[in-house]
């Protein structure tokens, strides 16, 4: 079964950086595309970034293009989200997901706080 352990969140000042890590288990990680989502309380979750199984294809929502970078290491079964030039509107709970493998799995997520 799909399981992710997310780490690297926390508080940061506007303009700062954080790198989220997501360690996967329970499935053939190297064969599955992975997405980072985020959710602000009271709002619908949104997909932030997508990476294909090989890592060759990535996609981002417009608001993070040029600031966030998604990568993966299939040998470690890990996905990363490098977040630079963070803005207050990036504050949210971030989730690592494999929606094409298990559409229902969200995991615990990790909090990112952006404030002066």
Keywords:
mainly beta; 116 residues; four-stranded antiparallel β-sheet
Describe this structure in words.
The protein has strands at residues 3-7, 10-12, 18-25, 34-39, 46-51, 58-60, 68-73, 78-83, 92-97, 110-114. The chain is globular, with a radius of gyration of 13 Å. The mean pLDDT is 96. The strands form two sheets. A six-stranded mixed β-sheet has the order 2-10-9-4-5-6, with no helix packed on it. A hairpin with a 4-residue loop joins strand 7 and strand 8 (78-83). 27% of the residues are buried. By secondary structure, it is an all-beta fold. The chain has no helices and ten strands. Helices cover 0% and strands 47% of the residues.
* Widest β-sheet, arrangement of strands: 2-10-9-4-5-6
Count of individual beta strands: 10
What composes the largest sheet?
6 strands, mixed
Order of helices and strands: EEEEEEEEEE
Share in β-strands:
over 45%
pLDDT averaged over residues: 96
- Gyration radius from CA atoms, angstroms: 13 Å
Count every helix, treating DSSP H or I runs of 4 or more residues as helices.
0
The general outline is globular
* Low-pLDDT regions: none
């Amino acid at each position: 079964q799909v399981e992710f352990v997310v780490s690297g969140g926390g508080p940061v000042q506007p303009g700062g950086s954080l790198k989220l890590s997501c360690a996967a288990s329970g499935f053939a990680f190297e064969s599955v595309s992975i997405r980072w989502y985020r959710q602000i309380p009271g709002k619908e979750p949104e997909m932030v970034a997508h990476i294909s199984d090989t890592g060759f294809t990535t996609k981002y929502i417009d608001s993070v293009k040029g600031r966030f970078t998604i990568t993966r290491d299939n040998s470690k079964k890990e996905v990363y989200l490098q977040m630079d030039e963070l803005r207050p509107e990036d504050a949210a709970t971030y989730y690592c997901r494999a929606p094409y493998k298990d559409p229902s799995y969200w995991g615990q997520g990790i909090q990112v706080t952006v404030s002066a």
